[in-house]
């Protein structure tokens, strides 16, 4: 019985890229558990109530099976959500992996959820500039985040809640980046992939134009030649949203 249980357990955790296939294999092996349950029932009918070879029961094994089956469904659901997020929101696979890795790092007890302090530390590790406050003092910025991920304040953030929050924030960044890039493209005559010094000063305040010129890289054409007074607004915009 134990060997069957640990085999099922290894099937679920063996590969994150094959959850669905492994889960189907587990479902297909349900018949083996039925055989064990039938043998257990036959032993009870024969009044063999004490099995000296194991302390485990068919009821216990069935409960473990159900737990593993539910765990497999949850893990598959989370994976499908992440794949859908990557395909529909523009969130990169690398970003999703980083989010998941950081969650696991701060989930010290492997409970599948973070308490508020662990969640805050996780956000800081991902580049969130959250203020340091003394215990008991107001923390409006973090409280605003908790309003989204833990509105009922049960004290914990699940993996699903965490991933949904991070994907939402990453999507907002992507949209904001595209909006700013489009604004620069509108400043550039004929929608060129660069903006000139003259165009910046014509359309922005002097302070804004000075900032752009001091932070934008010179634009290089396809042959690696630097165009005079031309600045790469695409690289500049995307660098603003790295985090």
From TrEMBL:
Taxonomic superkingdom: Eukaryota
Keywords of this entry: Actin-binding, Calcium, Metal-binding, Repeat, Signal
A Pfam family it matches: Spectrin
Calcium keyword on record: yes
Span of the signal peptide: 1-18
SMART domains: EFh, efhand_Ca_insen
Keyword Repeat: yes
PANTHER family per the UniProt record, alphabetical: SPECTRIN/FILAMIN RELATED CYTOSKELETAL PROTEIN
Name recorded for this polypeptide: EF-hand domain-containing protein
Lineage: Eukaryota, Metazoa, Chordata, Craniata, Vertebrata
